[in-house]
Amino acid sequence: MREFSAEYLRRTREGMWDDSREALRGLSLDDRERVLDVGCGTGELSRVLDSESPDDCEVIGCDVDVGLLSRASGHVPVVAGDATRLPFADDSFDLVVCQALLINLPDPAAAVSEFARVSSDLVAAIEPDNGAVTIESSVDDESGLATRAREAYLDGVPTDVTLGAEASDAFATADLDVVRTARYDHDRSIEPPYDESAVRSAKRKASGEGLADDRETLLAGALTPDEYDDLRAAWREMGRTVVHQMVDRSYRRTETVPFHVTVGRVRA
């Protein structure tokens, strides 16, 4: 399974569900008694589940990374565990949910089967389609370069990070009845006044640091070393334009990541 830093999870999940929680309606959170958030990371979704559930509902976070769990433990109880070998008895929860987890697993259906084992009722997966991400930017080259980098990155990732709505296939394999699907678009916008995270992101573009961090994955697909060097040079030039626009407070960017919420019911 791919590993992520607390900073990466904070940056990519920041603000998610702030504008609307309608896509979570199929989770029936208002009548849950015990909920498990698998692959909870630093607990962003766990906190949403806790706030939307009844006061007497217990929400528990579970993740294989104990370092990330330490960031979530101040909000909900947490337990260390692997998504395909959960440390819970059968039917321990009436809802088991994950967010952006299945896309990082080599066998999503195996994890969903394990979710079904420990759930007496519902299983839900909130998974992005990273192949359908869109970017609107005041820097002319940013959207096109981001698409080139994303396509090369996706080509080099060994798991299906475009899973999205196709998570329902894993549910069918796990003998779950899909009862609801919904789409939620997570918009992440940058506009003046720029916060520290936006400034840091612009500096990473200008230095090419982000592409350097992903070099191994980018080269694992069809991208050649020369093509990588050309892409990184263009990326750094684009980043310098971003910085210049930030200086005169004209830079604006919106990234939209589509998530698909699949809810299934355990068969009696």
Automatic annotation (TrEMBL):
Q: Name one GO molecular function term.
A: S-adenosylmethionine-dependent methyltransferase activity
Domain (Methyltransferase type) spans 36-118
- Which Pfam family is an annotated match for this chain, by its short name? Methyltransf_11
- What highest taxon heads this organism's lineage? Archaea
Q: Where is this region: Disordered?
A: 189-211
Q: Which UniProt keywords apply?
A: Methyltransferase, Transferase, Ubiquinone
List, alphabetically, the InterPro entries matched: Methyltransf_11 (IPR013216), SAM-dependent_MTases_sf (IPR029063)
Gene3D superfamilies under this entry?
Vaccinia Virus protein VP39 (3.40.50.150)
Example GO biological process term?
methylation
Name of the protein in its database record: Methylase involved in ubiquinone/menaquinone biosynthesis
Q: What are the leading ranks of the lineage?
A: Archaea, Methanobacteriati, Methanobacteriota, Stenosarchaea group, Halobacteria
